[in-house]
Amino acid sequence: MSKVISDIQDALACVESGHTILVGGFGLVGAPLSLIEGLTEKDVTNLTIVSNNLGESGKGLGILLNQNKIKKGIGSYFTSNRDVGDKYQKGEIELELLPQGTLAESLRAGGAGLGGYYTTTGVGTDLAKGKEEREIDGVNYIFEKAIRADVALIRAHKADTLGNLVYYKTARNFNPLMATAAKKVIVEVDEIVEPGALNPEEIVTPFLYVDTIIQAQQVLTKEGVVNK
Amino acid sequence: MSKVISDIQDALACVESGHTILVGGFGLVGAPLSLIEGLTEKDVTNLTIVSNNLGESGKGLGILLNQNKIKKGIGSYFTSNRDVGDKYQKGEIELELLPQGTLAESLRAGGAGLGGYYTTTGVGTDLAKGKEEREIDGVNYIFEKAIRADVALIRAHKADTLGNLVYYKTARNFNPLMATAAKKVIVEVDEIVEPGALNPEEIVTPFLYVDTIIQAQQVLTKEGVVNK
Amino acid sequence: MTTWSKTDMQHLIAKRVAAELEGPCVVNLGIGIPTLVAEYMDAEDIYMHTENGLLGVTDVEEADIDPNLVNAGKLPVGEAIGSSFFNSSDSFAMIRGGHVDVAILGALQVDQTGVIANWAVPGKNIMGVGGAMDLLVGAKKVFVTMSHTSKDGSSKLLKECTYPITSTRSVDMIFTELAVFEVVNKQLKLVELMPGITIEEVQAKTEADFIH
Amino acid sequence: MTTWSKTDMQHLIAKRVAAELEGPCVVNLGIGIPTLVAEYMDAEDIYMHTENGLLGVTDVEEADIDPNLVNAGKLPVGEAIGSSFFNSSDSFAMIRGGHVDVAILGALQVDQTGVIANWAVPGKNIMGVGGAMDLLVGAKKVFVTMSHTSKDGSSKLLKECTYPITSTRSVDMIFTELAVFEVVNKQLKLVELMPGITIEEVQAKTEADFIH
User: What SUPFAM superfamilies does the record point to (chains A, B) (predicted)?
Assistant: First the structure.
């Protein structure tokens, strides 16, 4: 049972207008660049994108933004793309800003079947507005809801054909969390190997989380993003 | 800066009467057998022990139980030691029974600085009695509190002298979670290596969680527990 | 009326459950009859998850037994090709997050809406629950295996459970030595009689209402 | 009155903060002046954490730059001996769970109780927060580095922050090009004048009340 698909649009067949989509990466590092490009070529709209950033101006998710395919962004640092602010000003996009730790934790909670959790992060700040506050053992917390999505687009370093994944250095970031929190998980990888090639003690994402694997066609290098 | 200590009682110097102590392991698998033995030789009482089981009759934590050092047990499966039931019947021990997933998740929440979380596990059962129930997006959850402790006694496979840890097969279980959720973390390991010997991608417990390392003196073999 | 040795009965049930599994899927096996199901699985793409931290469980030869490689019943197991190890919270995140396809569990009682009791007996100390409640809320499908009646001959399929329930969630299928039931809209539906069993025998030994 | 180039000022502050760090400890460095602190740390047992997933950050030579190995400011970094990689929730679990000893952050404003504002400016869209709020609630100690005054000469140490605060938690120490403050019982205490600075100059440029 191999989960490997060669055509990106086939891999993205499950993506529909109105979907909530998790997109891995911290800036371009660990972002599923090939899948994002595939999404810019697909006729979908009204997407909710959950990602630390919405790319950079005219790059990565920034292209999707400029195509007006994004209805709402949920992330921690939209500042990296000035177009996001312009669109927000014009009322063309909804934004939900979360502390980075809350974004990560909510994704993990979503994947783990939790409803939500209490964190001290954000208590007493503008980002706590409208959120329940509760004292537990003398400490003030706010309630944060779990995040779950229709599809996750992630990047890993290696996959075996079953879907077990390992990551590479700081390109790991949100990817393993997003792998757990969506109905369909599509991963692009640098290298596809046979089952048994990855050490069972080192696998970060066990295969039950992964639906589809593609060979990455775009790679981040010192010189920027290049086609492979 | 090496965290390695050779004498078990020196390693356990931070343990005091009345402490809450996390003890790793699933039965004897992955249990810190040498540290538990050290605890049975130490003059402490009134302990709250958080562990999946309280050992077996007269073995591991079972010895501590029979020494009347345990005031309260928090775990998921006390059935493995018939003495626990006897003591409970006589009112000699308090017990808090949690689903195994809740025990694990509460430890993780404790380590991650969360106050608690909502889970579907246990809803509508006797184990939900007295716990807040809440509907979130049409699903019923109960509130579970994070668990934090004074000391964690855990077992890993290898440690470097900084305190980075890797585990071995199903001996991993609760150990990495407990490493995050106590003020002092003492680990016993099969092997101590130099910093740099463990692959940064494979380290399961980063060194900032670990205070003290000892070489395991007791090992679980096919023939049972043997002194090394 | 058919009678079996306990072992034969357990194997009969285990074999029948195994036939219900279709790959690709991830299955968690409880203690008791469920453990036997592994003996009858032949599809290559059925993977077993054990909640103490391993996805990809296989049998192990006596010579290869590793005391630190066990299943949730603390029995020695082996590693399949493509297996992975993880900690307890990651393991239960798989279960509670709905990533395990099928849980096969034993039960003490099942009520006629498919709700089960399998972790505690009234009048005895409540001492252990393990992963039972987690598996019931989390697995996409739950299959129950059990003898149809207690040692005293009374039905274990009841109008209402008298033991503490494990979850308010109804299981999906129930396999006994007499019959196979599906739970459809909170109602038991007999879908198959085991070899040599008559509907009358099932009716006689079943307190719960069921349709067929 | 002393004047510095912006770079000199930043390095002056960074060097002073570095002197405050005692190993063994784990330090998280924010963007801006905090990043410079690494240049002045000499203790072998001071380890740097970056919230995008690495404990054990070092400098990197131009030739060794790896585009997939960066810090929270997306600048290339290297790996120390004994480093480890982890995902974002594990990284923030370290921060929020109180396992990072010191966070060194920049700030736009500090009030006289030590509460800071460093993530948003009123009248502009609120577009980014990153890990600032997490670090403020979680790090055992928080050190703030900033220029003492804004470009227009107004004090950044205020009676009350006019920008949205990052946390209700007071920071522990504040380092500017003029002075070092500790926050003691929700009160600023001047503990050191930077070389060549007089108490009068600090008083003239500080709106916040402070003791000394």
Answer: NagB/RpiA/CoA transferase-like
Residue B121 falls inside a structural domain: no
With respect to residue B124, please indicate whether it lies within any of the assigned structural domains: no
How would you classify the pairing of strands D102-106 and D46-50?
A: unpaired
Mean residue pLDDT across chain A = 97
CA dihedral for A99, A105, A110, A114, sign (positive or negative): negative
Backbone angles phi, psi at D147, to 5 degrees: -70, 150
pLDDT score recorded for residue C132? 96
> Which residues from B are below 8 Å from C67, CB to CB?
29, 220-222
pLDDT in tens, C162-200: 999 999 999 999 999 999 999 999 999 999 999 999 999
> Rounded to whole angstroms, how far apart are CA atoms D132 and D119?
7
Q: Residues B73-128: pLDDT tens digits?
A: 999 999 989 999 999 999 999 999 999 999 999 999 999 999 999 999 999 999 99
- The answer to whether the CB of A149 falls within 8 A of the CB of A107 is no
pLDDT averaged over chain D?
A: 95
Domain of C127, in residue numbers: 6-211
Whether C26 sits inside 8 A of A164 (CB atoms) is no
Q: Where are the alpha helices (DSSP H) in chain C?
A: 6-20, 33-37, 88-96, 132-138, 199-204
Catalytic sites of D, residue numbers: 51
**In-domain check, residue D1:** no
What CATH number does residue A45 fall under?
3.40.1080.10
Q: What is the pLDDT of residues C57-97, one digit of tens each?
A: 999 999 999 999 999 999 999 999 999 999 999 999 999 99
Higher-confidence position of A41 and C125:
A41
Q: Which domain holds residue A13?
A: 8-116+148-227
Coil, helix or strand at residue B143: strand
Residue C1 within any structural domain of the chain = no
Instruction: Answer whether residue B183 is part of any domain.
Output: yes
Instruction: Give the pLDDT confidence of A74-94 residue by residue, as tens digits.
Output: 999 999 899 999 999 999 999
- Gyration radius (Cα) of chain B, Å: 18
Q: Please report whether residue A23 resides in a domain.
A: yes
Which residues of chain C lie closer than 8 angstroms to A111, CB-CB? 93, 97, 99
Residues 49-68 of A with CB under 8 A from D: 52
Return the pLDDT at C44: 86
8 Å CB contact between A154 and A111: no
- Judged by CB atoms closer than 8 Å, whether chains meet at C87 and B175 is answered as yes
Q: Can you give the CATH number for the domain in which C38 is found?
A: 3.40.1080.10
All residues of chain C having their beta carbon less than 8 Å from the beta carbon of residue A206 are: 55, 84, 86, 94
In the predicted model, is pLDDT for residue D32 greater than 90? no
Average pLDDT over residues B148-155: 98
Contact D127 A108 (CB under 8 A): no
Residue with tokens 């249990």: B31
| Count of structural domains, chain D | 1
Q: In total, how many domains does chain A have?
A: 1
| Cα distance between residue C137 and residue C84, in whole Å | 23
Q: Residue D122 has what pLDDT?
A: 87
Per-residue pLDDT at A206 exceeds 90? yes
Work out the minimum CA distance from B84 to partner chain C, whole angstroms: 8
Contact with chain C for residue B101, Cβ under 8 A: yes
Determine, yes or no, domain membership for C51. yes
What pLDDT was estimated at residue D1? 52
More confident residue, D168 or A2: D168
- Selection from B178, B167, B179 nearest residue B208 by Cα: B179
Residue D172 lies in a domain: yes
* Dist. CA D192–CA D180, nearest whole Å: 5
Partner residue facing D129 (CB), from A76, A168, A175: A76
ipTM: 0.97
